[in-house]
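Anyone up for a design puzzle?
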């Protein structure tokens, strides 16, 4: 439609019928075969039938909780965590006499932690509730009877209601389109809320209802719709509408989905068929798979280990307590007379020592609860959210062209970014731009187009040809027209009329201009025509046709209008083609066709599609240029171009009428095999075609892709490419981005061998499949033996496998062998892969290797792969937003993966690992001081510290520094992370969170606790502490030990930090200062509250020099073991990041020779990327020179 306004359209559903969707059969089987149960009585004024059939209302709730369920469900979520449940048990027990501390001091920290998390849940759910209220209370015009429409809330809609939706309004439910303000009953729909696509889609009502363009028409309107039950498939719909004893078939073209928006259409009338949670958008609103990082899983194991330690020490203490208690009273004599064992409660009764020991066990379980860090989960959540903010705000991952920054959609997997071992990547739109340029074509067996592709440039470098000199000139003269980079004076500027096959060229260009679903947009100011198409390559075809003289400028539902170059006059003439049918493209059909009638009355079938399906549909007299065209498309594939075959044929009137009748009958079927019937009808019409030629479009590599792959390879990360493209195209893209290189042996496993082709023609399909599987298995075994030999001579191998072979390689009895082969290869490229195969390969690598997998893609066909991988990265590119909406992190360009992994991934892994280790260290230190004091006090259950000292330890005095560590610490700068990519291997090998390192921190905690306790107890046990000569009491000893603990764990933090900020200084030293402030303030409170802390600092500790001296002595003594270990380890056994720190401190970061020596550790014979390729070429040149010198020496000697 010509028009002045700019508007976007998406026409993936412009068609006269549904066809070719592979998923339809599955959907039909799910809903019970040919009979569908939903029956909709349209315009039922009493709404009786909707109620009788028990169809739900249109109220939608997306909240996780309701007002009634929030507290119980939220509490249940909190106490599902084993640590929180343990603290709940302790809180309950604290109200009983077995508690070693007051109930309030134990309950308050738990309440604070749980309340903080519940508050976060409440805020998130309240936002969802607000959105629900706003949506449910939106208003739409509903037929009230008598031809009158009035506003009603969305929530009040019922199935069968007639609604009138006006321009720029959202559809309130799933509707069947009845009519619109356009005479041909079309409307434009924006589906951004469903699939993220901004392009508009065209819908059209049935002819039987298309004339109902006024409110009054609906006064007596009655109809019955029979259709499929509610399901989640957005792109299929089967049903029929019964109107005035006539049956009209319904298809997705008449379906308007809830949350879509009406655009560029004044109004539409529709009938409600699915409401509320039955609508397709709500059927699709499932929660994404829950993903947890490996560090988080290991952290759970550590907590279980600490629980075991806690139970063990409690058990040991209880045994000793029981034995000691029993000995208190023997033959009437009291051993510990001051405890009055002859007159005591059950807790210390020598006569009931076993019971006392059991009760003591519960006391100990509560007392040693400080082994488990209560604030760990909350602290990690806070840290991960802040880390995500840093990722989102990184200007180096901001893509200015589309105004898109990086977006971490979940913060659960930050540290997992630092442990990726395998990347599984889509090709089109991920490695490449998905911005197609028409660059070459083959017409009538003649190749046209003199441009050069990036792959050809890469090939020229490989072959050492002077080709690069030619391409420089070409690059300068590149066309400024987006989508068109074609140069060939033979057919440009109307010169095609002088070519020998001018008639074929005319038909070729006309087919490009007519066979599509694009929509023209005419700029009122300039008169220029631009296009919106369902795919970038389709837009490129229409632009190419325009630039070569066949301008498509107007479209209605029934006509396509062109301005064509007339061969006889050389002038532009306007021609109109009546559009009869569009046989749409699908992944199953691999082709699309249109049937049109030209101005002379001829019926033409115009078709374009993949060579694999088009050549077999050619007529015997239509294969004149077949061999030459095949040769050209082979060359185009070698150049990394995407090709399509163009063909046509004339139809006879009776042939078309028969086709149309069969098609109409098939459309009226409501059965499970409707798709197969329709496909059979299409097969009968799309045959006996006459070949015109082939198109070749280039999908360019994104900026920085080779450099990014090179860095990732040096980091030890393997990249698998999973693409739906041809093998030749994928291989050449592999060369362009240095996944493949000269001299790398290619293992190609394919089903396209002559033997396998002959197998496919066997009548016994099961036998053919078994033979094909045996062939694939043999190819894999042969490749495995080749792999074994390659390891011996350090030769790099690349595995390339096609989709049919991959199907068999993924079967249960073959997949382990296939995976072993793939892991041993430097590069893996899976061609012609279906979305399901992508997900299955990802699952295989993830489960069988146990390594962290990252999947990256940009299209809807990558969603399964993204959700299956440990981390899913969505590229916010050209193919809509479905990949982004299913991803964990979204970035705008593939090259940003380098910074996301090597910088943010490494930092997050290091920070979270160090944070968790430190958390356990500080809690083990604190817990073991309690245990040692228990040993000293005969396991009496008496805590060494005041109740509130213990409660605030994790909440105030040690929590903020560890959060600062998790957010700000850096071992090396971002620049050095990128300069030395092998640093990333610390995360892959899990060096910083290995059991060895965790155990080291635990032993450090035990040693710190031992030094603190025994130094304090020995220094103060017999020391006169006050002026009157009194020795130290429990309150002074406890406060002194606590002071030492606060100093030691915070100074340990200071020693562990590699990168100080002022925030870390404030938090570390501020936590220590806060302890003294608290001690003074708490000690000033009434002694009934402050108990043992009453004025202990002001009156006892502060005036005593020994208190300060002991604190200093203990601090130095406790830190010496760690300091000594760290010094020896850095000096004699440095880790990779410590080597880089030394380089930085010695000022050698700019010494290229020294840096090259360090970086060489990144390059192995199995490494891909251009750096490795350069190294391989150097080795090759050196070996060549060596061979030449050997030969020359031999010739001289002879």
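Challenge accepted. My sequence:
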């Amino acid at each position: 439609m010509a028009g002045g306004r700019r508007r976007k359209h998406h026409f993936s559903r412009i068609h006269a019928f549904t066809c070719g969707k592979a998923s339809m059969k599955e959907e039909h089987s799910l809903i019970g075969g040919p009979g569908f149960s939903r029956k909709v009585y349209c315009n039922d004024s009493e709404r009786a039938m909707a109620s009788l059939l028990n169809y739900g209302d249109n109220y939608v709730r997306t909240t996780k909780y309701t007002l009634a369920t929030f507290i119980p469900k939220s509490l249940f979520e909190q106490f599902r965590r084993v640590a929180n449940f343990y603290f709940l048990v302790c809180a309950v027990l604290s109200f009983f006499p077995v508690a070693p501390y007051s109930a309030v001091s134990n309950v308050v920290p738990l309440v604070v932690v749980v309340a903080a998390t519940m508050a976060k849940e409440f805020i998130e759910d309240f936002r969802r509730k607000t959105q629900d209220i706003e949506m449910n209370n939106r208003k739409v015009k509903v037929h009230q009877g008598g031809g009158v429409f009035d506003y009603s809330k969305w929530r009040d809609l019922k199935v069968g209601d007639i609604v009138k939706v006006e321009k720029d309004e959202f559809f309130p439910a799933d509707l069947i389109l009845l009519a619109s303000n356009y005479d041909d009953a079309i409307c434009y729909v924006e589906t951004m809320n469903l699939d993220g696509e901004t392009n508009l889609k065209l819908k059209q009502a049935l002819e039987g209802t298309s004339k109902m363009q006024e409110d009054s028409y609906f006064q007596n309107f009655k109809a019955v719709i029979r259709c499929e039950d509610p399901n989640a498939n957005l792109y299929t719909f089967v049903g029929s509408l019964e109107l005035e004893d006539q049956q009209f078939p319904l298809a997705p073209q008449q379906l308007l989905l809830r949350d879509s928006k009406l655009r560029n259409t004044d109004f539409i009338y529709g009938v409600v068929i699915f409401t509320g949670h039955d609508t397709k958008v709500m059927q699709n609103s499932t929660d994404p798979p829950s993903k947890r990082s490996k560090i988080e899983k290991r952290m759970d194991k550590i907590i279980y280990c600490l629980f075991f330690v806690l139970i063990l020490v409690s058990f040991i203490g209880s045994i000793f307590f029981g034995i000691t208690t029993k000995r208190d009273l023997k033959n009437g004599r009291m051993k510990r007379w001051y405890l009055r064992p002859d007159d005591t409660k059950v807790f210390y009764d020598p006569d009931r020592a076993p019971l006392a020991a059991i009760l003591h066990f519960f006391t100990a379980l509560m007392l040693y609860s400080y082994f488990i860090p209560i604030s760990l989960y909350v602290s990690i959540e806070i840290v991960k959210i802040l880390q995500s903010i840093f990722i989102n705000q990184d200007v180096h991952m901001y893509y200015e062209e589309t105004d898109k920054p990086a977006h971490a959609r979940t913060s659960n997997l930050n540290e997992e970014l630092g442990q990726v071992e395998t990347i599984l990547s889509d090709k089109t739109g991920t490695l490449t731009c998905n911005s197609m340029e028409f660059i070459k074509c083959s017409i009538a067996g003649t190749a046209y187009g003199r441009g050069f592709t990036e792959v050809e440039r890469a090939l020229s470098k490989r072959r050492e040809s002077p080709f690069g000199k030619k391409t420089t000139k070409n690059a300068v003269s590149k066309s400024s027209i987006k989508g068109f980079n074609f140069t060939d004076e033979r057919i440009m500027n109307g010169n095609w009329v002088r070519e020998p096959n001018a008639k074929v060229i005319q038909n070729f260009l006309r087919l490009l201009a007519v066979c599509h679903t694009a929509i023209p947009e005419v700029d009122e100011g300039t008169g220029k025509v631009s296009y919106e198409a369902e795919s970038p390559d389709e837009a490129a075809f229409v632009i190419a046709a325009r630039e070569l003289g066949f301008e498509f400028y107007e479209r209605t539902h029934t006509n396509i209008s062109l301005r064509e170059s007339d061969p006889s006059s050389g002038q532009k003439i306007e021609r109109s083609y009546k559009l009869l049918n569009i046989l749409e493209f699908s992944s199953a059909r691999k082709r699309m066709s249109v049937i049109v009638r030209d101005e002379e009355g001829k019926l033409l079938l115009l078709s374009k599609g993949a060579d694999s399906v088009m050549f077999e549909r050619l007529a015997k007299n239509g294969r004149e240029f077949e061999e030459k065209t095949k040769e050209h498309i082979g060359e185009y594939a070698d150049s990394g171009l995407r090709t399509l075959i163009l063909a046509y044929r004339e139809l006879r009137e009776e042939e078309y009428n028969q086709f149309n009748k069969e098609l109409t009958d098939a459309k009226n079927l409501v059965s499970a095999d409707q798709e197969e019937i329709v496909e059979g009808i299409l097969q009968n019409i799309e045959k006996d075609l006459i070949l015109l030629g082939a198109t070749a479009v280039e999908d360019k590599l994104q900026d920085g892709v080779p450099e990014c792959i090179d860095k990732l390879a040096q980091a030890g990360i393997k990249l698998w490419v999973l693409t739906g493209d041809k093998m030749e195209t994928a291989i050449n893209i592999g060369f362009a981005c240095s996944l493949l290189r000269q001299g790398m042996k290619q293992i190609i496993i394919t089903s396209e061998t002559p033997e396998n082709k002959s197998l496919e023609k066997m009548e016994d399909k099961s036998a053919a499949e078994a033979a094909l599987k045996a062939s694939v298995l043999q190819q894999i075994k042969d490749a495995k033996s080749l792999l074994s030999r390659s390891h011996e001579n350090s030769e790099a191998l690349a595995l390339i496998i096609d989709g049919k072979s991959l199907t068999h390689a993924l079967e249960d009895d073959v997949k382990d062998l296939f995976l072993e082969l793939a892991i041993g290869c430097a590069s893996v490229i899976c061609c012609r892969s279906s979305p399901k195969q992508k997900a299955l390969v990802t699952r295989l690598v993830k489960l069988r290797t146990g390594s962290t997998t990252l999947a990256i893609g940009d299209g809807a066909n990558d969603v399964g792969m993204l959700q299956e991988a440990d981390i899913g990265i969505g590229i916010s590119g050209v193919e809509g937003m479905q990949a982004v909406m299913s991803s964990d992190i979204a970035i705008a360009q593939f090259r940003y993966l380098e910074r996301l992994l090597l910088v943010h991934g490494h930092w997050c892994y290091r920070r979270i690992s160090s944070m968790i280790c430190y958390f356990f260290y500080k809690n083990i230190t604190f817990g073991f001081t309690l245990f040692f004091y228990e040993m000293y006090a005969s396991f009496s259950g008496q805590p060494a510290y005041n109740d509130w000292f213990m409660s605030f330890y994790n909440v105030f005095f040690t929590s903020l520094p560890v959060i600062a560590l998790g957010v700000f610490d850096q071992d090396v700068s971002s620049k050095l992370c990128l300069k030395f990519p092998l640093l990333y291997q610390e995360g892959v090998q899990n060096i910083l969170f290995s059991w060895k390192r965790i155990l080291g921190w635990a032993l450090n905690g035990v040693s710190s606790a031992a030094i603190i306790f025994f130094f304090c107890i020995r220094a103060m046990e017999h020391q006169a502490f006050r002026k009157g000569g009194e020795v130290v009491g429990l309150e002074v000893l406890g406060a002194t030990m606590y002071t030492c603990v606060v100093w030691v764990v915070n100074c340990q933090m200071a020693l562990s930090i590699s990168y100080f900020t002022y925030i870390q200084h404030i938090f570390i030293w501020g936590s220590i200062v806060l302890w003294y402030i608290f001690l003074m303030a708490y000690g000033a409170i009434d002694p009934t509250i402050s108990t043992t802390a009453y004025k202990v600092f002001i009156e006892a500790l502060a005036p005593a020099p020994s208190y300060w001296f002991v604190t200093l002595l203990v601090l130095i003594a406790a830190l010496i073991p760690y300091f000594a270990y760290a010094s020896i380890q850095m000096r004699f056994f440095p880790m990779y990041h410590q080597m880089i720190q030394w380089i930085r401190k010695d000022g050698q970061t700019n010494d290229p020779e020294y840096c090259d020596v360090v970086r060489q550790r990144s390059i192995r014979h199995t490494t891909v990327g251009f750096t490795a390729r350069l190294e391989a070429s150097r080795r090759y040149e050196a070996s060549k020179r060596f061979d030449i010198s050997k030969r020359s020496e031999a010739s001289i000697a002879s």
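A detail worth pointing out: Confidence is low (pLDDT under 50) at residues 1-35, 464-477.
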